[in-house]
Write a structure and sequence with these properties.
The protein is an all-alpha fold. It is built from 22 helices and no strands. The longest helix is centred in the middle third of the chain and has 27 residues.
Length: 377
């Protein structure tokens, strides 16, 4: 949308316009207002009061013209610009959202939430936005709006906005490679959002998890890396669910065993790549033969022989400690905690649930009965 500058002087007023009509007054008053370069405080106040009073009765075509006239006018009253930015007609709001120097955060946030996408793109072009608005745009914007947010030359997105992007697999599928190529995602987000990432960022997430596992081991004095410690009966029940119970039954079993939410466990079983499934199987400590059986049963119908072999090779290359790091961070994220470096728990804390099932450490009081039942399995 382009807005042309109004001509100067009073000759631009349409002589045929009926200024006695209330719905025609505001456009005429706006044309007079923008014809002057400067206004004192009283003039701005009077025009603002007049505009807010007349806007509800002004036709949409006039409101669009008024928005174009005021969007780049330095003296435009902020309250009038705010009213135009919140206008239900997108063509009224667009120029103001794009060009107005200052708008209230709550107005920007409301537009980012409700859309439409054309207005979200206008917001994304603004040189500065509050973090809350950036996060909402990352969560709601279409591909074009998101690409504007991550364009070269713009400030780096805050972690909450990046996390909102990572939680949208349909967006990550198209912009993920660019994020990976520019290394825009911190390691904590890569690890925590692994199931919804694209292939390039998943590779970075695995590398980050392996490094995290090594760092945790070094902090613990170089002791033996944590290993999965699940009861054989529980693992047998998981394999049996994959063979006879279908994806839904299998998802319930891995959710129960790994402490994942039902929704995340279901997404793991339907992921077309099978990679999150392999991570879960590595964290469970299943024998290689059982891993092959489960992978073929759960995702084998949609993958070629070469892809199945690549999945099994991925399982062999992934360390148990890295798999536990990944699953542990998924649990933290699903529990509603932010996956940030400041809140990262050491690996021995993240694997407390597995250790408690083996009897090597007392379970937390809140999970005592559940862990006792799983040990009995």
């Amino acid at each position: 949308m382009t807005c042309t500058e109004p001509p100067r002087g009073t000759s631009f007023l349409d002589p045929k316009r009926d200024l006695a009509r209330r719905d025609c007054l505001l456009l005429a008053a706006t044309e007079l207002f923008v014809a002057r370069d400067r206004h004192d405080r009283s003039e701005r106040r009077l025009f603002g009061e007049l505009a807010l009073n007349l806007l509800p009765d002004t036709p949409v075509g006039d409101r669009r013209r008024i928005a174009c006239l005021l969007a780049r006018t330095p003296d435009a009253p902020p309250e009038v610009l705010n009213a135009l930015a919140a206008d239900p007609d997108p063509l009224v709001a667009y120029p103001v959202l794009l060009h107005a120097a200052v708008l209230p955060e709550d107005t920007l946030l409301a537009v980012a939430e409700r859309g439409p996408d054309s207005l979200r793109r206008a917001l994304s072009r603004r040189p500065e936005l509050p973090e809350s608005v950036l996060e909402r745009l990352a969560a709601r914007g279409d591909e074009a709006a998101v690409r504007l947010l991550i364009a070269h030359g713009r400030p780096l997105l805050p972690v909450p906005a990046l996390a909102a992007l990572c939680a949208r697999p349909e967006i990550m599928a198209v912009i993920g490679p660019e994020l990976a190529g520019r290394a825009l995602l911190p390691s904590d987000l890569l690890i925590a959002h692994y199931p919804t990432l694209d292939a390039a960022n998943r590779q970075r997430a695995i590398a980050a998890a392996e490094l995290r596992a090594l760092a945790d081991r070094a902090r613990q004095g170089g002791t033996r890396a944590p290993q999965p410690a699940f009861k054989p009966a529980l693992l047998q029940r998981i394999v049996a669910a994959a063979l006879t119970g279908g994806r839904a039954s299998f998802a319930r079993q891995i959710a129960y065993a790994l402490g994942l939410s039902a929704g995340l466990a279901a997404r793991v079983t339907v992921d077309a790549s099978g990679e999150p499934l392999v991570v879960c199987l590595k964290a469970l400590g299943l024998a290689p033969a059982s891993v092959a059986t489960v992978v073929v049963r759960i995702v084998g119908r949609t993958l070629s022989i070469e892809q199945l072999r690549a999945l099994l090779a991925f399982h062999d290359a992934l360390s148990p400690a890295a798999a536990l790091v990944l699953v542990g961070r998924w649990r933290v994220l699903e529990g509603g905690q932010a996956a940030t470096p400041e809140r990262h728990a050491p690996l021995h804390q993240e694997t407390r649930l597995q250790a408690s099932r083996s009897g090597s450490e007392a379970p937390a009081p809140a999970r005592k009965d559940v862990d006792r039942e799983r040990q009995a399995s």
